[in-house]
């Protein structure tokens, strides 16, 4: 796809047409900005700041990770600045703003272990409001911990599962937490844990994510229009942030049907922290393990378990610098080596998991800017071994090491500049070897050198303009080096006194790695390859336009339309030539367009949102199933082409102090390729058949199903029936002297809808039948969380 | 052939089915009323594949299953013509089923066409062959194949029978066959029951068929018998599989065939994308139906395992 000039002109006209709705300009206005810290000198982020005059709200802001906040375009006058946050209580001070004056304040917020519901709701509102006012082109949707815990889940709260309820996000199977955003493939989502990429953030082949909700502060999905600082993936960015706690000792634990988990947080004693050059040093660490193998051991050997460990530490120096260290390691182990040979004759040991570590140093600058340096490493690997057969080796590994520097400055209250550079070294190694033969082999490395610059100019509640450019130099080995320049532009025009806005964003996005995971399979592992001589880089041009705004204090609505093109998407070549080491991956193109509607209510007894997503996606590849020469191309809807997807998510009070959650999801059927007929499958046998054909079913022990091949219709030309599912949850927090106890119940698929996972067309039956398997049936799960 | 997900993919699918099976998610069966009627032609030209090393050219024509019965209608009366370099042509005539197939679901569910060994002998490794099938009642299927290049065995160095030390792996080597996509390595091991039962190893099948692969024209070695049976390891008794890792037991013998196969042959046999309803074949015939026109070149030898010198049996395989 290339940008269409007439489309951009139309968008510009749309923006200008709304110029008359802009709020009046305050020529004599000033500004209020500053930094907020706790009584130990650590920055406090997420503080809601309200500037009021005679009881009327004038401006609202939220402190960022460095405790900085800014309120621009404040009329001359005397005000009260109120600020508060969960765990810190509230405070206020008087502020006077003169004509053109930039008032700078340093605020201190004392820690107080009291949670105030008013602060919770207000903070949520203010954060969304600040994002609405300060974010130009990006579509940002936040999932808060409270949302996560009340969205009914599979066994326990799961950030990746929860992302599915956001507009523009499609999931194709109950059995996978993998998701697709606005027509992008699942490997086109950049998933970050405290800024460090996690290559394959799944346990149990995709059934659960690796993220432990007890470690989570918040998860944020950028589903489009993201600015130049983001590279490496083309479809979305999911940023998961850990919570290092407030320095007080606390324990969170939980038991679900999946696993048991514990997270412990605390602070390093002041004396030790000072000796290390810090005024404050806080940490949180967690461990999680599934326990089916232990639980079932008296009865039989359950061969699978998962485990993960995560830790985060955050320290603040006396000069205000922040140092943050994040680490994660997790494994899935499928050990079939200890089973009885009669139950499972082949001894197999299969492991997979991620390792992630990162360190981040941030120096705040006066006026809200910062300088940040990051070093991180991330790796994913899987290995399948057969202890009895040394000639067999299946493995797939990818790793990266990254160094990154970001600078942000605010030369004026209305201008924000950001630039940075990064260097990433990636490597992968895939091997499928057995019986002395390499059935598949690929390895390589690559260096990605990137730099970006972006500027954001705003006239509060009138205009917000963003422009940026990103340069990526990709140096693969083996493969030719490439250079991509990726412009990013966005504009937002406010109307109705700043309560509404129209916005447009356009940009180019690039990606230099692919996962060859077969998306037709509900469970599976990622097999990563780097762009180079085997696979191209992905280049995606995207345009999105939308309107959003507040309808009263509680209601927010957003409607966005988008068009995306993808050059360089890949898939396996099922007809690859074994004599050509470079043809095992097919390169193709993709295109998607659609619209996302979000209506959200914050506050009130019943809160939640309705997300409605319309999507039309296409992929085009050489049709290797065709006998024609030259090979023709086939264009088809990929399996994530769910044309219409509706999510209703509600939080509401239940009798007896219980909190209720509900999710109802309706989606039109996803595409599949139907078998139109079947025929007996034969294989020539020379050694004892002199080349005659033998019916495959004659030596198939499975019931003859393997003895037939199928004639297929055009790829993905059929669709499964409409998907719908109602999930509910209930949880109650019981306060005890020692802490809190929260039992919960999740019920998935309450009315037991048989949503189709697969159809089997069995033409060898008399009469022929269509059978199949469904996704989750009615599935209640229970669990309990403790905190002290 | 670089990165392949096939073994992990099938394992992942098995894992998915396991998960699904645990949760009891079967859907109600619905009777189907329609089945597409498609002619399937499986045409193979095999150089030196016959028991005496003769060439074969056969066509097995069948159809998609007829309305659900586990059978299909035959395709009699077709004209099957193979043409080669210099304009020579072979017309495959109607022949008994057992010329084409050794095992089929139900008798009479296909039609066999073949040519005599003398005619087939005109085909040489490296030939470019064209196939045309005129279907009865109209319809045409066409395809082209290049016979893989000639190759010869290096170890064992002579055709016929040779002897190996018991429990001693033999590295079989051969020269490169130009244009081959894979070498399909088959063996039929006889005498295992008598050799392994005294060790407490149950042998259900004797003789035992094992399949190995050497992928690409350049992969011209395989260790016998350990690297045969890669695709049989899930179904094979592990005692037998492990015993064969060490070599042929004493007093057993095996027939071994190395077959260089062309593109069409490989694509049809290995299958395409995953589909839960059955195998997906990659055809090499286009027109009014589907199917394969595959070509191959085979080399055959026999191995006898003997601890004692066996005069007259044959030379040492690695000699």
Task: Report on the architecture of this protein.
- The complex is a heterodimer of chains A (788) and B (319).
- In chain A, the strands form eleven sheets. Chain A has a 22-stranded antiparallel barrel. In chain A, strands 8-15-16-11-12 form a five-stranded mixed sheet.
- The model of chain A is unreliable at 1-26 and 114-119 (pLDDT under 50).
- With 788 residues, chain A is mostly beta strands.
- Chain A is globular.
- Chain B has helices at 6-23, 97-100, 117-120, 192-196, 238-246, 263-270, and strands spanning 30-31, 39-47, 56-63, 79-83, 89-95, 101-103, 110-114, 128-134, 140-146, 153-155, 160-164, 170-174, 182-190, 208-215, 221-224, 253-261, 286-287, 290-305.
- With 319 residues, chain B is α+β, with helices and mostly antiparallel strands.
- In chain B, β8 and β9 (140-146) form a beta hairpin.
- Residues 1-12 of chain B have low confidence and may be disordered.
- In chain B, the strands form two sheets. In chain B, strands 2, 3, 4, 5, 7, 8, 9, 11, 13, 14, 16, 17 and 18 form a 13-stranded mixed sheet that branches. In chain B, strands 10-12-15 form a three-stranded antiparallel sheet, with no helix packed on it.
- The longest helix of chain B is centred in the first third of the chain and has 18 residues, at 6-23.
- β49 (769-774) of chain A pairs antiparallel with β1 of chain B, so a sheet runs across the interface.
